[in-house]
């Protein structure tokens, strides 16, 4: 009947409004999303230069012709909430994974941190503080702006899963259990994530 139809339409309308209200409550604002995109974009851009500098400043043609696996820093990948587009309003910690050709060491971590600090200062002076965290095998990039975002860059390598590292006892002790292994990335993001990473690596390589 017409009354039943009107009642059904009314319920749908109310349900839609509830969904939209809930979506507004949990979904980041356009300003928050822009802040997230900005810090990630700046770091990804900076790491392209960092990768070249870590490789010893070889000329661009040589870098372009090399296989990704020959580079010290192979690629920077978005993972977790950032990769899945599941950020919620108020989320302040973002995550990237830096894939290295060799077993990541404290020496490499500190070198990458130093170079990243300089590049981010060139891109956006006074916007970020960068600090290494050997205990977590990570680099922390914090925004000094109102958004106060923190980007955690976790260093890992396929070798973490397949072989023992050739590093000093001091470096091994410093990393401790903080090393995020390739296996952990597999467990967290699944088979198709790893397939995507390996196939697309050349397109997103540093």
Automatic annotation (TrEMBL):
GO terms for molecular function: double-stranded RNA binding; single-stranded RNA binding. Residues 1-206 form the DZF domain. InterPro entries: DZF_dom, DZF_dom_N, NT_sf. This is DZF domain-containing protein. It comes from the Eukaryota. One of its GO terms (cellular component) is precatalytic spliceosome.
């Amino acid at each position: 009947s017409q009354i039943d139809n009107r009642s059904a339409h009314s319920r749908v309308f109310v349900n839609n409004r509830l969904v939209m209200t809930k979506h507004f409550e949990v979904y980041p604002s356009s300003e928050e999303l822009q802040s997230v995109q900005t810090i990630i974009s700046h770091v990804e851009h900076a790491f392209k230069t960092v990768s070249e500098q870590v490789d010893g400043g070889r000329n661009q043609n040589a870098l372009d012709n090399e296989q990704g696996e020959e580079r010290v820093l192979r690629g920077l990948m978005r993972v977790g909430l950032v990769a899945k587009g599941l950020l919620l309003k108020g989320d302040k910690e973002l995550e990237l994974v830096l894939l290295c050709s060799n077993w990541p060491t404290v020496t490499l971590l500190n070198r990458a941190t130093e170079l990243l600090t300089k590049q981010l200062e060139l891109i956006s002076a006074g916007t970020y503080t960068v600090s290494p965290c050997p205990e977590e095998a990570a680099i922390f990039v914090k925004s000094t702006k109102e958004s106060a975002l923190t980007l955690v860059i976790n260093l890992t390598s396929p070798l973490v899963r397949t072989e023992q590292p050739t590093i000093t006892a001091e470096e091994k002790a410093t990393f401790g259990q903080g090393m995020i292994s390739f296996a952990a990335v597999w467990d967290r993001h699944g088979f198709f994530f790893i397939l995507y990473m390996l196939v697309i690596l050349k397109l997103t390589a540093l």
